[in-house]
Design goal:
- The chain contains 14 helices and 8 strands.
- It is mostly helical and about 375 residues long.
- Among the domains are: about 170 residues, no CATH class; about 60 residues.
- α7 runs antiparallel to α8 and α8 packs antiparallel against α9.
- The N terminus is likely disordered.
Length: about 375
Amino acid sequence: MPLRRIRPFFRLLLSAGGALSLSACGVPFRYFPQAALGQLELFNRARPIEEVLEDQRVPVRVRDLLREIPDVKKFGESRGLKPTSNYVEYVALDRPAVVWVVSASPPLRFEPKKWSFPIVGGFTYLGWFNREAALGYAREMGEAEGWDVDVRGASAYSTLGWFRDPVLSTMIPEGVDSRGELVNVILHESVHASFYIEHQSAFNENIASFVADRLTREYFMRESPTRDSDQKTLRSWEESEARREKRQKKLHEGYITLEWLYAQTQLNDEEKKTQKKEILDRLKRELGMPSERTLNNATLIQYRTYQSGQAEWTEFFEQECKRDWSTFWEKLEPLRAESGQWFSERQVEDMGSVLRNLRSSDRSR
């Protein structure tokens, strides 16, 4: 095994060992070995993209998309994203997701379960490299502890600079949206590697979505030899985003309905559970979801802040930063440098309040 793959692997084991010795909150012991082995598998299967581009066994469509990645990274860096050694390798996986994400919430209130790790902070989800292991852990939480649990596949993730992240085959979907989706996910994960606040997964995902979506549009609207093709790709990606947003809005409405139900003091728990099932069954039919797909509090809690903060982020970028990315990152730096001043230990989801406080502080200086 090449040294460059051994050293990061040992680093992960040391991180996991440190977390174990410091009692990572709520994380089962078996999680750490599977995380180490799953990461090791990616290291072992990674191939330099330059090598993949010469391999005629790799579909032309995939090679064309991989060939564009250096341009996407360079574009992101020109907008203030951190230069990294990520996405110079490719991993072909024989599964539909790289990790399966487990999240949980009590059955009659919306309150995400939080897993805490020393060094890297807290998360409202836990990613497993093996689907059956994720499902088994979810069953344990549901049956033994009574949680509503959701398990969903993820096509990509960021190690936040701990390791060199490769491009994964799961990041390249089938269909006409593949180019737009790949550009967006590269930019999204690059934001995580550039700007990250511990214990604030809601904030981190919010800013990554705003920046990546904005940069994706800028990327395809730039002057380039492929401008006509870029504009077609942008239209296709935006249509796909519109369909996704319509679905997310419907899930958000389900969250609002259940939140109201749980607040009804005249109903007992059994009555609330009965009405909850009726609401979720109806929502699944409206969304065309298969009957076996789980839909519960842990699923819906991800949509409680539908498009949260996007309007505030847009206003902040356009009015406070004059659409200048250098100014944007400069004005955000106090959030990272003095995070305790802006965030408590709980998950802050009101982006508007954070940005309003940031603007007020900036103007008082």
